[in-house]
């Protein structure tokens, strides 16, 4: 943060006044440094830079002024000591854990995770000899058992993708401290506007900046936030050497996205709550999940640790008692509903200005076994709705028309 700014600024103000490093042109919009490398004043300066005796820009795989601006701004909004940006959200997940885990180390994770995260654990961490113990994220007894012995790291999503389970972050944080584990929270669904995991006891936070931070479906990006020791130590070392670096152009787009993040997310969250309330009462909907809706099974917990409920509503269609929710008839009904939507674009993204519909069982979580999906509540009737910036009444009318096809 600039030295002449007050220390007590709130997130909305931080989103437009931090990460600013004006050039001699004194530009209003932050500069975009599309360069792969940097010139040295002398051979001696280059030597000292590579020796670590001076801190200057050397190569954009290591650091870049535009990327620095994005990192500083997101860290200020999150309330983190440090932030390191990555090329994608999944590279952030991979680096957050891969930078500290080795053969024989133990990772404890909630069962309900994004499909690509589960694939990363199964296809890479397992092969590296990392021991992975999965727990039911909403069962305190399972957390107690899993963290009664030492662990190197704990990883969760809250709310989870796609069923929006809300996990007790402070309670898990206390157990992580006892087990000596670094506690990492994927905060994508809640966003930095709606939940502050670091304030709740987490050690680190990961984001797919592709989602709400961009918010308009333009670029890929990710971020890892936490203590300076962690982010500027193992995280920075791994990203700089493996090359999972964000491009300056993408960082600039995301930097500008942060300026409007709060405005967009608050609008989307208000619409999401209204739609969840409306859908939950609809005769063709079995359940509409939204963390701050009173029908949510962890509603009280959500209220205690979230200031906004996020921008997604996850629903299950009600096809009657004679339809197998894991069968082809259920999938066909869900597809008819989604194909009839006109304002909800069929996509696997979320957090966009445009509303999006997703069928998790056949897309984001299609690599899970049917039994694994059932265990975390995903059926063929499950549809994830990402609520955009459209008028909420238009979205209701679109959903009503589509539900007529069920």
Protein described:
The structure is a single chain. The protein has helices at residues 11-17, 43-51, 65-78, 89-98, 115-125, 140-146, 169-179, 191-194, 228-242, 248-280, 299-305, 328-340, 370-375, 392-403; strands at residues 82-86, 106-110, 131-135, 153-157, 182-186, 204-208, 222-226, 285-289, 312-317, 345-346, 356-358, 382-386. It starts with 10 loop residues before the first helix and ends with a helix. Strand 2 (106-110), helix 5 and strand 3 form a beta-alpha-beta unit. It has two domains: 11-257, Type I PLP-dependent aspartate aminotransferase-like (Major domain) (Aspartate Aminotransferase, domain 2); 262-403, Aspartate Aminotransferase, domain 1. With 406 residues, it is of the alpha/beta class. It is globular and about 80 Å long. The longest helix has 33 residues, at 248-280.
């Amino acid at each position: 943060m600039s030295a002449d700014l007050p220390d007590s600024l709130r997130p909305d103000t931080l989103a437009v006044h931090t990460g600013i490093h004006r050039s001699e042109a004194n530009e209003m919009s932050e500069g975009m440094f599309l360069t792969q490398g940097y010139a040295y004043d002398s051979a001696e300066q280059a030597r000292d830079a590579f020796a670590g005796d001076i801190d200057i820009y050397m190569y954009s795989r290591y650091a870049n002024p535009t990327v620095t601006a994005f990192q500083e701004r997101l860290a200020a909004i999150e309330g983190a000591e440090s932030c390191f940006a990555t090329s994608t959200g999944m590279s952030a997940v991979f680096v957050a854990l891969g930078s500290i885990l080795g053969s024989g180390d133990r990772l404890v994770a909630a069962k309900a995770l994004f499909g690509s995260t589960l694939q990363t654990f199964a296809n890479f961490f397992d092969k590296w000899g990392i021991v992975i113990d999965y727990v039911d994220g909403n069962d305190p007894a399972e957390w107690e058992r899993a963290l009664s012995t030492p662990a190197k790291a704990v990883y969760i999503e809250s709310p989870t993708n796609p069923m929006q389970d809300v996990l007790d972050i402070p309670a898990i944080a206390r157990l992580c401290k006892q087990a000596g584990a670094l506690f990492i929270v994927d905060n994508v669904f809640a966003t930095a506007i709606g939940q502050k995991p670091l304030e709740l006891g987490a050690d680190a936070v990961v984001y797919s900046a592709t989602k709400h931070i961009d918010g308009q479906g333009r670029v890929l990006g990710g971020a890892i936030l936490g203590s300076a020791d962690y982010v500027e130590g193992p995280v920075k070392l791994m990203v700089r050497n493996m090359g999972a670096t964000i491009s300056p152009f993408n960082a600039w787009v995301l930097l500008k996205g942060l300026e409007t993040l709060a405005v967009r997310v608050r609008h989307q969250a208000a619409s999401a709550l209204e739609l969840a309330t409306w859908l939950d009462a609809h005769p063709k909907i079995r359940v509409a999940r939204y963390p701050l809706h009173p029908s949510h099974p962890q509603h009280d917990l959500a209220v205690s640790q979230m200031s906004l409920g996020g921008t997604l509503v996850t629903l299950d269609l009600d096809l009657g008692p004679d339809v197998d929710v894991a069968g082809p008839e259920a999938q066909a009904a869900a597809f008819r509903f989604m194909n009839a939507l006109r304002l909800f674009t069929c996509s696997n993204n979320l957090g966009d200005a445009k509303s999006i519909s997703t069928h998790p069982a056949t897309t984001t979580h299609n690599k899970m076994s049917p039994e694994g999906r059932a265990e975390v509540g995903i059926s063929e009737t499950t549809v994830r709705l990402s609520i955009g910036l459209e008028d909420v009444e238009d979205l209701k009318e679109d959903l009503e028309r589509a539900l007529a096809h069920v």
